[in-house]
Write a structure and sequence with these properties.
Layout: H1 3-11, E1 14-18, E2 26-29, E3 56-60, H2 71-78, E4 83-86, H3 91-103, H4 111-118, H5 122-128, E5 131-134, H6 141-155, E6 161-165, E7 178-181, E8 187-189, E9 194-199, H7 204-211, E10 216-219, H8 226-236, H9 243-256, E11 283-286, E12 292-295, H10 306-313, E13 323-324, E14 329-331, E15 336-340, E16 348-351, E17 354-356, E18 361-381, H11 385-406, E19 414-420, E20 437-446, H12 449-457, H13 462-465, E21 480-492, E22 497-502, E23 505-511, H14 544-547, E24 548-555, E25 558-565, H15 571-576, H16 578-582, E26 586-588
Parallel strand pairs: 3-4, 4-5, 5-10, 6-10, 25-26
Antiparallel strand pairs: 1-2, 1-15, 3-11, 6-22, 7-8, 7-21, 9-18, 11-12, 12-16, 13-14, 14-17, 15-16, 18-20, 18-21, 19-20, 22-23, 24-25
């Protein structure tokens, strides 16, 4: 029995919260021991695809490329893990890795994974029998695996490294004259200045790597939750049509894929989260029936609660009734989150995810070049600082526009100016008072690099020829950088081959034709989802954070906001607020 299970059994009760579009149920539950079974505690590991009955413990040490190095030793030594997973890839990261590979063919992966996450702890991982899954391969997973093999060789160990490839569609560019857009299904041509093109693969190739005995699995682009679902499919023998189980495993992956975001990071009630310097990273203990416990290692900072879990649940998923993944279409609208009492740092039990067949298509993220951008950041001090900063920025833009006109060059495609300290981000709701400090944050976009080089040169002269108090340029003269924009489309699964490599050799090629059933449409909006008429009103006004938990997220150029009412009485008023619906907001109320 794990120490966590003992705590759960001693706690004996929990608070229960159910998420759906009409209510979130709050009650208490009794002893939870039937939900969390004993974990096998000896040091052996069975590297087969045979179904096991003991729960599987998975910890996530990275939510993005650049996350803290403190997470790895914390999870290795305090997480009691079967698997350690890492998520490194965002949409823009893939394009940056493509640029790195174009300059140096042996690059194109996340080197931090090899040199910071694995190399210092490779002996600990081997001794504890912890298997590793990561999408750190980026656009060059085979090179990443070669670098890992060097680490293993240097440590004198015998570990098997497996690689998933096939997500890169750039070799097929000539055959993709027109593509189906992910947003509306319309047909469009690919951008001419295409820079990268990668399909979001699912968990099945990762599962196959583990079935074949891999100790470390490296993939390129896959959906973030696949690094968790793959080990669960391998461990429990879940099949490709066990949709409810796949949805539950995907939810477990979704909750931990962004690292500390589910353990108190960027939480609405940030002031209740202790010890950011010791921030705990998430661990899920998953049972064979799909139910799982979300917690963090003992004696770490952070917080696991209904609020932290619910906020991460609505992060970047759009409609929770129809969250589209390569392996399953998820319905999270009836998810039950139970707060476990008496656990240091908090823990929740999560159940109720439902699944249905996935789409016949992979989602693909392409990036393309769209001109150049330069950004300048300049502190300004003294009386009327914001006024001086704004006039300085406007004068720099006016001067450089005149120069471009004299050189018969086009105007900037766009210019953005924000005065930090003047509450510019609040727009008409700003309540700015006179400040003696402000910061100019200005950016310009142009199709020609030369135009932005002119703009960059004209920042420093403001220090002698404009307002007093401009105290410097953060980072020196602005650098001119290429602008990469995302382009999302769909690609038939049947037309993509995914390769599995083990020990440097190609051992399998997978080709997924998609489900045999017809794709399901989103459920219709019910009357309960419509704003309530005739609500009583009064003279009071409230900040959103007083009434709800919230979490914002984005996929490329699309953003969404998840809103979870703190109390059932608040929900009708939140639902009536049109700004959330106009902005694609999501409302998950309590009852």
């Amino acid at each position: 029995m794990s120490s966590f299970q003992r705590v759960v059994r001693l706690a004996g009760r929990c608070d229960r919260w159910r998420l759906n579009f009409r209510f979130l149920h709050v009650s208490s539950c009794g002893n939870l021991s039937s939900r969390v079974t004993d974990r096998h505690t000896n040091g052996s590991r069975s590297y087969t695809s045979c179904a096991r009955t003991q729960p599987v413990r998975i910890g996530c040490a990275s939510g993005f490329w650049g996350d803290t190095a403190a997470s790895v030793p914390q999870l290795i030594h305090g997480g009691a893990l079967d698997f350690l997973v890492f998520d490194y890839l965002s949409e823009i990261t893939m394009s940056l890795l493509t640029a790195a590979k174009s300059k140096t063919p042996t690059l194109g992966y996340a080197p931090d994974f090899v040199h910071v996450a694995l190399a210092p702890f490779i002996n600990d991982l081997h001794r504890k029998g912890i298997r590793v899954v990561s999408n750190a391969g980026g656009v060059n997973p085979l090179a990443c695996a070669e670098a890992i093999q060097e680490v293993i060789k240097k440590a004198g160990l015998d570990l098997k490294v497996a690689v998933v490839t096939g997500d890169d569609l750039m070799p097929h560019r000539s055959s993709l004259s027109e593509v189906k857009m992910a947003a509306d299904g319309s047909t469009r041509s690919l951008p001419r200045s295409l820079h990268s093109m990668n399909a979001y693969l699912g968990a099945l190739p990762i599962r196959r790597c583990l079935d074949l005995g891999a100790d470390i699995v490296v993939s390129g682009r896959c959906v973030d939750s696949a690094v968790v679902l793959g080990p669960l499919m391998h461990s429990f023998g879940w099949g490709r049509t066990d949709y409810d189980l796949l949805a539950s495993g995907s939810l477990a992956g979704h909750l931990i894929e962004c690292g500390a975001q589910s353990t108190g990071g960027v939480f609405t009630d940030w002031h209740k989260v202790p010890d950011w310097d010791l921030m705990g990273f998430p661990v899920v203990e998953v049972s064979s029936d799909g139910a799982f416990v979300l917690s963090k290692p003992p004696a770490t900072g952070g917080l696991v609660s209904f609020g932290t879990a619910a906020e991460q649940l609505v992060y970047e998923i759009g409609d929770p009734r129809r969250y589209l993944l390569p392996d399953v279409t998820c319905d999270f609208s009836q998810v039950l989150i139970q707060e476990v009492a008496g656990v240091d740092g908090g823990a929740v039990i999560v159940t109720g995810a439902k699944g249905s067949p996935p789409s016949h298509d992979y989602k693909v993220c392409a990036t393309y070049m769209d001109g150049y951008r330069a950004t300048a950041v300049c502190p300004v001090g003294g009386p009327r600082a914001a006024e001086k900063a704004r006039r300085t920025a406007e004068s720099i833009v006016k001067r450089t526009r005149r120069m471009l006109n004299q050189l018969k060059m086009e105007d900037f495609s766009s210019v953005s100016v924000q005065i930090l300290g003047a509450e510019d981000t609040y727009g008409p709701n700003a309540r700015c008072q006179s400040s003696r400090e402000a910061v100019i944050w200005m950016a310009a976009h142009h199709q020609q690099k030369k135009a932005l080089e002119i703009f960059a040169r004209e920042i420093a002269p403001a220090g002698t020829g404009m307002a007093p108090g401009l105290t410097g340029i953060v980072g020196g003269r602005p650098r001119v950088s290429p602008v990469l924009k995302p382009f999302f489309f769909l690609h038939p699964k049947a037309e993509l081959k995914v390769d599995v490599h083990v020990g440097g050799e190609l051992v399998e090629t997978l080709k997924e034709a998609g489900p045999d059933t017809l794709e399901q449409e989103a459920p219709p909006t019910s009357e309960e989802d419509e704003p309530d008429a005739g609500l009583p009103s009064g003279p009071h006004s409230y900040r959103l954070e007083e009434l709800a938990f919230t979490r914002s997220g984005d996929k490329g150029d699309s953003a969404n906001i998840g809103v979870i009412a703190r109390h059932p009485l608040f929900f009708p008023y939140l639902k009536k607020t049109p700004d959330f619906f106009c902005g694609g907001g999501l409302l998950l109320p309590p009852h």
